[in-house]
Design brief:
With 102 residues, the protein is an alpha+beta fold. Helix content is 38%, strand content 28%. The protein is built from three helices and four strands; from the N terminus they run ββββααα. A hairpin with a 2-residue loop joins strand 3 and strand 4. The longest helix has 19 residues. The protein is globular and about 40 Å long.
């Protein structure tokens, strides 16, 4: 069984919470995940532009103008912890495909 995890520090910057996670598969480094939460808002569509601008401030043009695929169909819904879990699962799946781990 392959063990995949994301571990790292958590920062609070004003109204934002930023989590940086080093992604490993069986203790082999595969990449970094950046999670950003804008705490005053629970509706992604109302906060996406602000989150995007915040991310572009330190990641530059690598940040897409469009919300992540998973959120595009949920922009007007109240964000739930299950939404975070689903996005992590999608990213972990992408890392598995990129490294050939099934």
């Amino acid at each position: 069984m392959q063990k995949m995890e994301s571990k790292g520090p958590r920062f609070e910057i004003g109204d934002f919470c930023v989590k940086l996670g080093s992604v490993t598969i069986n203790q082999n480094f595969k990449g970094v995940l950046v999670e950003v939460e804008y705490r005053p808002c629970v509706v992604p569509g109302s906060a996406w532009e602000l989150i995007r601008e915040f991310l572009q401030g330190f990641l530059g043009s690598t940040v897409s103008n469009q919300a992540p695929q998973y959120l595009q169909n949920r922009m007007n819904d109240i964000y739930q912890p299950l939404d975070t879990i689903q996005q992590y699962l999608e990213h972990f799946g992408q890392y598995r495909k990129a490294t050939g781990v099934i």
